[in-house]
Amino acid sequence: MKLSRMTFTKLLALVAIVLCSFASTSRASPLDPERYLLVEAEPRAQLEDYRLNDDVWPTHYDIEIKPYLEAETGKQAFTFDGNTKITVKTEKQGVAQIKLQIARMEITSWSVVRKSDNNVVQTLTEIYDAETEVLTIPLASGVTLQANTEYLLSFTYIGNMDDDMHGFYRSYYLLNGEKVWLGSTQFQQTHARRAFPCFDEPRFKATFQLKINHKTPQYSVYSNTPIVNASPSESGRTLTTFGITPSMSSYLVAFIVAPYEINQREQMGILARPQAQNQTQYSLDEGIKLLKALEDWIDYPYSSVPEMPRMYMAAVPDFSAGAMENWGLLTYRETNILYRSDDSTSLQQQRIAAVISHEIAHQWFGDLLTCEWWDVTWLNEGFARFYQYFGTALVEPSWDLEHQFVVEQLQGVMQMDSLVSTHPMTHPVYTQAQVSGIFDNISYNKGAVMLRMMQHFMTPATFQTALRSYIKENAYKSVRPAHLFDALNRYNPNARMYMEPWTVQPGYPLVTVTSNANGFTITQKRFLVNEPTHTDATMWPLPLTYATNANEFSNTTPTFVMTASYNIPMADASNVQYFILNNQQVGYYRVNYDAALWGKISNALHSENFGGIHVLNRAQLVDDLFNLARGDIVPYGTALDILEYLKHETEYAPWLAAVNGLTTLSRRIHAEDEELFAIHILDIFAKAYDTVKFQAPSPTERRVFTYMRQNVLKWACNYGHEACSKAAVAEFERFYANPSVKVHPDLRQVVYCEGIRKGTQAHFEFLWNQYLTSNMATEQILILQGMGCASTYELISIMMDAIASEHVRSQDKSNAYTYIINNQYTLPHVSRYLQLNHAIWAAGHGSYLSVASAFNNLLARLKSDSERDTISAFIETNKNTLGQAAYDSIKNGLTEYETNKQFTMRNRDEISTFLKKKANGGAGAVFANVSMIVSLLVLVVCRW
């Protein structure tokens, strides 16, 4: 297929008709949450008005939906007719109005009837607040609801199947180049109200019975529960009735109208488009194993909920979240459930298993028990993220998932949680924007980290017993943290006292260790990466473990210390091999040591077998050093000296921590020091490259070794490793010459990237055609990653046009853009493109706030003052077009650029001195020199 800029211009000729929608809010998730400058509209109502009161409670819904996936007589395509009847009651006297929620629908009629005698309750004109989406039905003067009496609210309405992946929305897949439309749902957090009037908050649990009037035989229908009846309703249509659900929250209702097929066994089924059925076997097999393992661990069989005799999992082409835990009908992005070993990487396979485990865990932690309101989202998502790793480990014990958890989850959330802008796990939210924002790394990662910490404190067996009790006691209820703490306290009376402060306070501490002849003194102070001299006096219960030799790292049962300062007595402390705090990084904090202790740690890391330091503590040391240097606690020269030990590291977890730290550092290296930095990268990766080699994984190698190879090859090729580049280009040329023999999936990312970076436009067009014709969503992601390595303005423009077009689905646009700007050589090209084609970009993404987001993520990586000036001039010239919100956002991004520049200049001498010394061959002899480390550190420790 011939690909050119003109082709895309034609494809996008209709963008002008979308320009009227620029006032809408961008739906793109932050590309780089740590540096994304969110522009959130100020609440336009009183905060309490966004919440329903507790006067009236639903008990049951009868819902009938009639979708139109194509225009019919008198009906527009992508609309639906709805009829919902809600049984409600109140326990209060004198209730004179009913409040519930609706959105994006036209109510054509409604009524309130007392069920006992079918008498109509007289009402006044309804009141609808478009900002809060609350519908108020006032009763007539002098009329009130009778306590403990059932009433029936009936609504007839017309709804819309939008294309924004929320509510009951439209999606499609391509068959022979033609779109095949389908309807699916995503109701979390506040979008069930788009499909039916409801009490759309998690505490309002009720039962639901759904009927769908759909075209047959074109479409099949699926929902939370099995079908109990299907009968012809009119010519070419069938009315399908589903079983009554358990009592559950409105956001867990789900239904799909699609020409899907099912692969099923043992009460589990995978739903997918027909062409993807050959990609469903792995998720079916793994899902069955995971469901059984989690049932056994929790000791509450899924089938013990009588309304749920089976579990369906559906692959949806367009899906805003990674997956969704709708009770009995789990929905997924295709990349998170469809798998073939010849077209998906090992890491993609693990991702699929882990996401399935996450969603299955929600069937208890979220569905059976549900957080009472989104301010405690972590009660749902923290548990699901915990089982995403430790549930998957029950059936895949060889994947070293605990090692991955520590680096990806614990160390990952520390980045966000070290900023002033962070928030506690339990945090008030009211508006839709606030609710959406709470679904972040604090609720997910930090929630899971706290659970792991308590598991090690209570012991795994006791922790498991407590959680089993928690589930059984609170089944079918909505829960607050007190319910969890009560269950944990029953098995350890200190559990709440130790855990609760971590959930209600933002951030985490930096623990500083100083040594003396009689032991070690430990102090804590909140770690704020950009404010090392702050005066925040927050304290946490500190979970302490430590090791002075290889045999002591196995003790992960912490002693909690409740004071700001604590002494650990130890005879002959000055003669220990080292002192390392926080065995296997079970506790959630960073550690800084005095100069002498850092010297001992450095000596150990540079000795045989790394002095016996546990692999997770090596990963901890790597992550802490990068971030202590970034926070002006440890000089960069000292940190980089100690981290030279990585030249001999062969384990995945420390290397993953190193890659994370090096990624951040690479964005702050002064432009004139790039070549020196490249020499450094090639040096520390040299042995790792020789260890993993440019080759496909062997059948017997450890899974994490395969992952390490992918990281090592990526960094080696990116920084000009000759052998890596030569091998990757040769493999790409072979594939280009004979596309029927594919590149091994675990090598594709680096092969595609290097092939595009070193190739021609013909190579680019070849790979893009592979994207357009691939039937595998996982393969399409690998191709987008590879195409992000293009280096000319012409190719970058084609790629940016593609992202703005419908060829790249909305769910993938943000990631595709990130792949491009992670290649620093593209940044001027991307900046130029956005300035010339801002209207196309805004139309393709929904608003000019997406243009602001694109510029801000670019500015976070930029190192060019001239490019900054060009962007500044652009927004001044185009202020009216951008709009005030987007303009202000980019202004903030320009301020952030200055902050980053100041950081670079402040640390340049330290980093440059290290890099020059190393490039001149003088660094290697002093990396383990204790006196050198002492001299560099002593003043810093004293200052802190």
From TrEMBL:
Principal location class: membrane
A Pfam family it matches: Peptidase_M1
Signal peptide: 1-28
Residues where Zn(2+) binds: H358, H362, E381
Aminopeptidase N-like N-terminal domain location: 58-252
Molecular functions per Gene Ontology: alanyl aminopeptidase activity; metalloaminopeptidase activity; peptide binding; zinc ion binding
Named cofactor requirement(s): Zn(2+)
Cofactor notes: Binds 1 zinc ion per subunit.
Superkingdom of origin organism: Eukaryota
Alphabetical keyword list: Aminopeptidase, Cell membrane, Disulfide bond, Glycoprotein, GPI-anchor, Hydrolase, Lipoprotein, Membrane, Metal-binding, Metalloprotease, Protease, Signal, Transmembrane, Transmembrane helix, Zinc
Designated name of the protein: Aminopeptidase
Organism: Anopheles atroparvus
